[in-house]
Write a structure and sequence with these properties.
The complex is a heterodimer of chains A (288) and B (329). Chain A has ten helices and no strands. By secondary structure, chain A is an all-alpha fold. In chain B, 46% of the residues are buried. Chain B is built from eleven helices and twelve strands. In chain B, strand 9 and strand 10 form a beta hairpin. Classes of the chains: A mainly alpha (288), B alpha/beta (329).
Chain lengths: 288, 329
C-alpha cells in the first residue's frame, strides 16, 4: 500500500506531515522512548544499588536527576519507570485493539440479533464502574505476580476494548452496506475475506486514531493505580506517588516529584497531539 | 417458447419477499426466465419492479431481510437454491459474473484497481502475485483502458466513471463466466460513455461467447443489444418477446406505454411522454392486474382477475386480458 503516491494512506501521511504539533509529538515520543530503552545501558546506569551515604542528593553532574531516599540514581529509576509506563500503555492498547476490533467487527458485520446481544454485553460491562473492575483484577493478581506488569495490561486492556468495540461496530455497520462489499460478494469472497480485506482497511482510520488516544488514557490509568498503591511495578505513576509523599514544607526533595511528572506529562501531551493529528489526517470528512 | 432443454440459466416461478415492519413485502411474484448460451436477454421495467432483486436472488445475494419464498433457479443443470454457501461462492465471479449500476462506489477506495482485479484471480484461479498483476494488465487492456500498465497501480478515485465501469467489467469477466448479469451497467454514466460500454460488452460477448442478462429501464439500450426481452411490472413478467416483435407489435399496454415514452430524435414532440400514475406499492397490489389503475385500455375484470402470461404466437407471450385467448389464432 505504499506503492502509489495517490493512495489514501499517503494522502493522510501528507496531511500529517503538515501538522507541526503532531510532528513535534512524534519527535518527543521517539526521544522519550529511546531514552527509556537505550538510556540505562548506554549511560551505565544502575537503578537498584543503594548508596546510604548519598541519600536525597539533589541533581548534580554525577546524578543528573539526583538520588532518592535510598541513594539510588534517580535518572535510572525514572527511565526504568518510563519503560513500564510506555510498555503498559502500548501493550494494553494492543490488547484492547485486538479484542475490540474482533468483537466490534463481528457485531457490526453480522448485525441483527447477534449484534444486539454483543452490544448489550458491552453496555453491561460499561455499567460496571471501571475502576472497580480494574482494582478487582489487580487484587486478584496481586499475590501471584508481584512486579510483573502483565496483570496491569490485562486489567487495563479489558476496560479499554469496550469503546473500541463500539467504534468498530459502528464503522462496520455502515461499511457493510457499501457497494464494494456487494461487489466483493459477487466475485465469490467469503465473510472472513470481506471483513478483513475489504471492510477493515476502510475502518482503519478511526481505529488508529482511537488507539493512539487510548495509549495516554491507559498510561494515566496505570499511574493512577500506582498512585493509589495498586501498581505492581516501578512506573512513572509510582515515582510521582513517592515524590508527592516526600514533599513537605521543611525540606523539599523537588526532583523526586518534578522529573517523573515532567516526563509523564510530556509523554501524554505528545501522544494526544499525535492522536489529534492522526484524526485530522484520517478524518474522511476532511477529504474532498 | 420452445422446450429447449439446454437452457444455461433457468428461473422458474421465483417469488421473493422482504421482511419489513409492515410485514412481508413481495418484490418478485413468479418470474420465469431462460437464458441460452451466448444469447442476450434483456429485462426491462421501471425502478422497483423487481429486476435487480431477481438478479440478486439468482446469485443468492439478497439482503438478510430478503427471502426466496419459492421457485427454482437452475444453472447448467445445478439447482442453485440447493447449493451450500461455499459451493455458491465458487460459482460467483467464476461462472456467473455481475456488473452493477454504481461504478463510482463499487470499487474499494483503499486498494488499487490492479489489486481488486487480482482478488478475483486469487479466489478462483489461485494465481500468484506477479501473475495476478500481469493478468490484471491484460484484462484492463481487454476492456479498453489505455496505458493499462500504469492504470493498474491507480486508485479508484483517480479514474472516471466510465473507466471504473470498465474495471468492474474486467473483474466480472476475469474468469470468463458463462453468464454475465449486467444490472443497469450504463445508467450512471454519460450518454457517450454508455454507448462505449455497451459496445465493449457486445465485443466481449462475441469473443467469449457468454450469455448476458441485461437489466435496464432503457428500451433504447434493449433495441441495440438484446435478442429477447422480458418486460417486468410490479414483480411479474407482463410480456416476453424477441426484440424485433416487441418493437413492431407490443401487446401489453404497459409495454406500449414504455415505447411511447421513449424520446424520439426525429419527432417534433416538445414534451416527453410519460406514463400516468405511479407503480402501486408492493403492500397494496390489487388482486387483479397490477397495471390496471394506470392502464388506458382497462377492462372490468382487470381489477379482480389476474391475467396469466400466455403465448400469442411463437416466442411472444403477454399477461393481459386484452389478448387472452388470442393464442389459438
Amino acid at each position: 500500500m505504499t506503492r502509489a503516491a495517490a493512495g489514501p494512506w499517503s494522502d493522510a501521511w501528507r496531511r500529517l506531515r503538515r501538522n507541526r504539533l503532531a510532528l513535534a509529538g512524534v519527535v518527543v515520543l521517539i526521544a522519550i522512548a529511546l531514552a527509556c530503552i537505550a538510556g540505562p545501558p548506554l549511560l551505565g546506569l544502575d537503578a537498584e544499588t543503594t548508596h546510604p551515604q548519598l541519600r536525597h542528593e539533589p541533581p548534580s553532574l554525577a546524578h543528573w536527576f539526583g538520588t532518592d531516599a535510598l541513594g539510588r540514581d534517580f535518572l535510572a529509576r525514572v527511565l526504568l519507570g518510563g519503560r513500564t509506563s510506555l510498555l503498559v500503555g502500548f501493550a494494553a492498547t494492543l490488547a484492547s485493539v485486538i479484542v475490540g476490533v474482533a468483537y466490534g467487527a463481528v457485531a457490526g458485520y453480522y448485525g441483527g440479533r447477534l449484534d444486539e446481544l454483543l452490544m448489550r454485553v458491552v453496555d453491561f460491562l460499561y455499567g460496571i464502574p471501571y475502576m472497580f473492575l480494574v482494582i478487582l483484577i489487580m487484587l486478584m493478581f496481586a499475590e501471584t505476580a508481584r512486579g510483573d506488569p502483565l496483570p496491569v495490561f490485562l486489567a487495563l486492556g479489558l476496560v479499554q476494548w469496550l469503546t473500541m468495540a463500539r467504534i468498530v461496530r459502528g464503522e462496520f455497520l455502515v461499511l457493510r452496506n457499501r457497494e464494494f462489499v456487494l461487489a466483493a460478494r459477487l466475485i465469490g469472497a467469503g465473510d472472513a475475506r470481506i471483513i478483513f480485506r475489504h471492510i477493515l482497511p476502510n475502518a482503519l482510520g478511526p481505529i488508529v486514531v482511537y488507539a493512539t488516544l487510548t495509549v495516554p488514557a491507559v498510561i494515566i490509568l496505570e499511574s493512577f493505580l500506582s498512585f493509589l498503591g495498586l501498581g505492581v511495578a516501578l512506573s512513572w505513576g509510582q515515582l510521582v506517588s513517592e515524590g508527592v509523599s516526600v514533599v513537605n514544607p521543611i525540606r523539599s526533595y523537588w526532583w523526586l516529584l518534578v522529573w517523573p511528572s515532567v516526563l509523564l506529562a510530556s509523554t501524554l501531551l505528545a501522544l494526544n497531539f499525535v492522536g489529534d493529528g492522526l484524526r485530522d489526517a484520517l478524518d474522511p470528512r476532511a477529504q474532498r | 417458447m420452445g422446450g429447449a432443454a439446454g437452457a444455461l440459466l433457468e428461473v422458474r416461478d421465483l417469488h421473493v419477499s422482504f421482511d419489513t415492519e409492515a410485514g412481508a413485502v413481495p418484490a418478485v411474484r413468479g418470474v420465469d426466465l431462460r437464458v441460452q448460451r451466448g444469447e442476450t436477454l434483456a429485462v426491462v421495467g421501471e425502478s422497483g419492479c423487481g429486476k435487480s432483486v431477481t438478479a440478486l436472488a439468482i446469485l443468492r445475494l439478497l439482503d438478510p431481510s430478503g427471502r426466496i419464498e419459492r421457485g427454482a433457479v437452475r444453472f447448467d443443470g445445478q439447482d442453485l437454491l440447493g447449493l451450500s454457501e461455499p459451493e455458491m461462492r465458487a460459482l460467483r465471479g467464476r461462472r456467473i459474473g455481475m456488473v452493477f449500476q454504481e461504478p463510482m462506489t463499487s470499487l474499494n477506495p483503499v486498494f488499487t484497481v490492479g489489486d481488486q482485479i487480482g482478488e478475483v484471480l486469487a479466489i478462483h484461479r489461485g494465481l500468484g502475485k506477479r501473475e495476478r498483476r500481469a493478468e490484471a494488465i491484460r484484462l484492463l487492456e481487454k476492456v479498453g483502458i489505455p496505458a493499462a500498465a500504469e492504470r493498474v497501480d491507480q486508485y479508484p478515485h483517480e479514474m472516471s466513471g466510465g473507466m471504473k465501469q470498465r474495471v468492474m467489467i474486467a473483474i466480472a469477466i476475469a474468469c470468463e463466466p458463462e453468464v454475465l448479469i449486467a444490472d443497469e451497467p450504463t445508467t450512471a454514466l454519460d450518454v457517450t460513455v454508455q454507448a462505449q460500454i455497451l459496445d465493449l460488452l457486445r465485443a466481449l460477448q462475441q469473443e467469449m461467447r457468454m450469455a448476458i442478462v441485461l437489466i435496464t429501464h432503457n428500451l433504447g439500450v434493449v433495441a441495440q443489444f438484446a435478442q429477447r426481452v422480458l418486460v417486468m411490472y410490479a414483480g411479474k413478467i407482463v410480456e416476453r418477446s424477441d426484440v424485433a416483435t416487441l418493437f413492431r407489435e407490443p401487446l401489453h399496454p404497459y409495454t406500449r406505454a414504455l415505447l411511447r415514452a421513449l424520446p424520439s430524435r426525429s419527432a417534433h414532440a416538445e414534451r416527453l411522454v410519460s406514463i400516468a400514475g405511479t407503480v402501486p406499492s408492493p403492500l397494496e397490489y390489487p388482486p387483479g392486474c397490477a397495471f390496471c389503475a394506470r392502464c388506458p385500455d382497462v377492462l372490468p375484470r382487470c381489477a379482480d382477475d389476474e391475467p396469466r402470461l400466455e403465448g400469442v404466437e411463437a416466442g411472444h407471450a403477454v399477461a393481459c386480458w386484452l389478448h387472452a385467448g388470442t393464442g389459438a389464432r
